[in-house]
Amino acid sequence: MSDARLSITTRDVKLWYGKFQALKGINVDIKHGKITSLIGPSGCGKTTLLRCFNRVNERYGNVTTTGEIKLLGKNIYDPDVSLIELRKAVGMVFQRPNPLPLSIYENVVFGLRIHAEKSLSRGDLDDAVEKALTETGLWSDLKDRLNDRAINLQLEQQQKLCIARLLPLKPEIILMDEPCSALDVDGTRAIEELMWSLAGRYTIVIVTHNMAQARRASDETIFMLLGELIEHARTEDLFLTPRDSRTSEYIEGRYG
Amino acid sequence: MNMPADAQPVAQFGETPFTRKKQRSEKIARAIFAVMVACIVIPLIVIIGYLVKEGYSLISWKFLTTNPTHGMREGGIWSALLGTFWLVGVSLCISAPIGVLAAVYLNEYAKDNWFTRVVNLAVVNLAGVPSIVHALFGLGAFVLFAHMGRSILAASLTLAIMTMPVIIASTKEALAAVPRQFREACWNVGATKWQTIWRIVLPNSISGILTGVILQVSRTAGETAPIMFTGAVFYRRIEEGNLFAYNITDQCMALSTHLFAVKTQVTNAPEALSFAIALVLLGLVVFVNLTAILIRSWLRGRKKW
Ligand SMILES: Nc1ncnc2c1ncn2[C@@H]1O[C@H](COP(=O)(O)OP(=O)(O)O)[C@@H](O)[C@H]1O
Ligand SMILES: [Mg+2]
User: Fold this and answer.
1) Which residues does chain A have with pLDDT short of 70?
2) Do B189 and A165 lie within an 8 Å CB cutoff?
3) Of B92, B121, B211, B226, whose CB count within 10 A is highest?
4) What is the ipTM metric for this complex?
5) Gap from B189 CA to chain A (nearest CA, Å)
6) DSSP β-ladder status, A90-93 and A6-17
7) Which domains occur in chain A, in start order?
């Protein structure tokens, strides 16, 4: 069964920012092609855990990580792992849409350009742009203004563009850190629909502090608290019959 | 709240003694700030006006393009003007690339550890060292120790050492102004630091970087002490009309030292001469700063965020 294939497995992952321990032994299995949401009160380490999956934490100051993180069975802390290749396979979408200060077209092909050994043909680039924008539902709106500045798009389109920017690299995993928190209701719905249409081909991990969103837009949910993983279950199970009392307190809104 | 239309208004919005008091302080504050602005602007206008009035009569194309004559009492300022161009040009060719690249390293590559902090601290403090200290250093290091003798090269190196910390500081500021989210976007598609810098950071900070560099041009043009010890001469004739009349190992005249010499060493120099020299120096500085502003607004307009 393809369901059983695992994209990410971690064993006893601990992480320190300087002396402050932000993750306290995380064990998690994230299934291929599913949408997994990470919920928990702010400051519990959701973003930190997400950043572990493409090792981008290392760019944020004095960080120590121990334990094992495997992507598709490969330990990403093995010495032969290239961070460039790793991050090509594990893309990230941020809280605030962050299109690059380039044209729409150049945003989409940015990844291709930086990973290309020799310069790519215009045709290949055009194809990649059309494909990625079609996949994210932007093509019909934007196809006539590909040379406009990406920064002038509406926020929802910007965020979709940030997702589209990852696709030409054929990532295995797409990490999303509260991708809707800057968007309105319609924008949020559009991104959630987009996530469902991408699921299956890509493994999606989404951080959200909006529990309704986790319920609507994920197959599995992980609840974290103070750097620990409290519960990981199918989304409907976690929300209907939480096993841990802290989970039920959180989803009933008693804290966070 | 729903009020009947004919009800007496509850609020009167009238002045109270306290509002009057606040308004009075507001007026006083406003007046003080305006006076302060006048304190800056009026002397500036007076200085410029005075220079123009006293020196304008001598300014002409011939004044700019002929050598001084008759013991520097007559003739033009060609050798000093060209000397200043050379000093500024050569020193900038040294300090701009080194300074900008060093700033890129410090801002983008260097880990945040004690060594980096010491370097940053040193840069900040070097930027504040008086130029006469740089002059002594230049004399010792370049003229004597490195056997360059008094020359355009030694003087330019001294000027370069003086401007480099400022260029580093302004470049770092320009780089730091590029939003971090752009860098994050790059990292997360697997861009190397260099790709991030080259494709995103530099294009978006170039206007700030250039402004910082150009402002150092005007500072370099006006410096006197560092070149007096290291490469400027009292008097020198050069070929008129030839921009390459100086050689990098030559000593040269410069506007700032020329002005100093005319005012303090030359007896019976016409009163207008020193004002005319000062006016040219000022014009040069204003011209360079205007260029900086133009470049800046032009690049700003092309910025994509
Ligand atoms: N770069 C950093 N340096 C130091 N501490 C950090 C850093 N990033 C996050 N933290 C700390 O780690 C903890 C977890 O942060 P984070 O993963 O951002 O939480 P969440 O995304 O769940 O709100 C917080 O207490 C936060 O203060
Ligand atoms: Mg977060």
Assistant:
1) 1-4, 254-256
2) yes
3) B226
4) 0.84
5) 5
6) unpaired
7) 3-251 (3.40.50.300)
